[in-house]
Amino acid sequence: MESIDKNLVAIIMAGGVGTRFWPLSTHERPKQFIQLFDDRSLLQKSYDRVAGIVPDERVIVLTNRQFTPLVREQLPNIPDRNIIGEPERKDTAAAVCLGALVAMKRFGNPVIVILTADHLIDPVEKFQQTLISAVKESRRTGALYTFGIKPTHPATGYGYLEVGQKTSMDQDVEHFHVVSFKEKPNAELAGQYLESGRYLWNSGMFVWTADAIFNELILHLPNHVEHLAKAVEKMDTDQWEDELQEKFAVLNRISIDYAVMEKARDVRCVAGEFSWKDVGGWLAIQDFLAHDANGNFIKGRVHALDAQGNLVFCDQPQETLAMVGVSDVVVVRAGEKTLVAHKDRLEDVKQIVESMITR
Predict the structure, then answer these.
(1) 45-63: per-residue pLDDT in tens?
(2) Contacts of 235 (CB under 8 A, 6+ apart)
(3) How far apart are CA 271 and CA 133, in angstroms?
(4) Please, what is the Cα angle at 315 between 156 and 51, to 5 degrees?
(5) What's the half-sphere exposure (Cβ side, CA atoms, 13 Å) at 318?
(6) Nearest of 16, 14, 29 to residue 334 by alpha carbon
(7) Interatomic CA distance for residues 27 and 288, integer angstroms
(8) Of 61, 183, 217, 318, which has fewest CB within 10 angstroms of its CB?
């Protein structure tokens, strides 16, 4: 593999609750810890992508405090002190700020790679090539880098990056200035984005030096930096968890895109040529499932009669499911729980799961 910056840190954000993947994903074991297609969870796959590039002692996992035992179970090679449990969910700006401060305290001014634990990426080798290219340029230029993904269809479920001038070409990896960040578009606007050729999907993965992101955080999120820096002073002491809880309580909940990336002085991206999926819900996985001539996407033993456009996922291979005369329905079997939902109503799964918890 191509030589890479030796002062490199990978931070995996693994704090989601994954209600849209119920019933396979639960509040006790959310989606980043489940195995969808093989024996490796989404979290483990995220780790696998950097395991050959970043040493285990430089991989940091940020998760909810209640999930730290699951992270230790699934990533036994990661040192315990590198598995940090956030006491509250305060969105990605808090995670990025905390990760940067921890990395600076331990490693000085490393290049930091920010990954999430809910992506499917293939081939890994192409992703790694793109990552290494972003690492080199972030160190050289001091720019904040994000990963843009070349769109294959007018997706309405992703945010977009509007790209401007090409800044460099590293072998076959293209680098661009980022002009603006766009919210998830409607179908018409997504079509215009695709046709223009000036927009990439916003992957939510980042690369920057610790100094570069710290300077932007000081400028745009001084409250986060002030409070979390005080907490990090107590890292590796008996006061660490209590201090972190106290400081998290006063933070505003805001994403890193809103808080920093949309305002930062020099934001660039690498254009990913690899296959990428943000696994936000059940429809995101259908391309990875077997399908029949009637557009039914299937995992498990399924028998269909006059059924079209359905998605069926059986967690246990010995289960048998039959469908008759139904269309555009999602059916999921996991343990003693079953989900049946129309494809158009999948966003409401979160609502019904939360209502079950409160009863």
Answers:
(1) 999 999 989 999 999 999 9
(2) 102, 105
(3) 11
(4) 70
(5) 1
(6) 29
(7) 24
(8) 318
Mean pLDDT of the 295-324 span: 94
Range with the poorest average pLDDT among 110-119, 261-270, 345-354: 345-354
201's tokens:
């999907």
Q: With contact defined as beta carbons under 8 Å apart, do 6 and 135 qualify?
A: no
- List, for residues 209-247, the tens digit of each pLDDT value: 999 999 999 999 999 999 999 999 999 999 999 999 999
pTM: 0.92
Q: How far apart are CA 277 and CA 244, in angstroms?
A: 32
Helix (H, G, I), strand (E, B) or coil at 334: strand
Q: Which two tokens stand for residue 123?
A: 């081939």
- H or E stretch at 318: none
Neighbouring CB atoms inside 10 A of 317's CB total: 8
Element (H, E) at 229: helix 222-232
pLDDT at residue 359 is higher than 70: no
Angle at 260 between CA 259 and CA 266, to 5 degrees: 160
Check the CA dihedral 171-172-177-182 and report its sign.
negative
Q: How far apart are CA 175 and CA 272, in angstroms?
A: 10
Q: pLDDT digits over 175-219, tens only?
A: 999 999 999 999 999 999 999 999 999 999 999 999 999 999 999
In this model, does residue 5 exceed pLDDT 80? no
Among residues 159, 177, 180, the alpha carbon closest in space to that of 168 is found at: 177
Q: Give the DSSP per-residue string, 266-287.
A: -EEEEEE-SEEEE--SGGGGGG
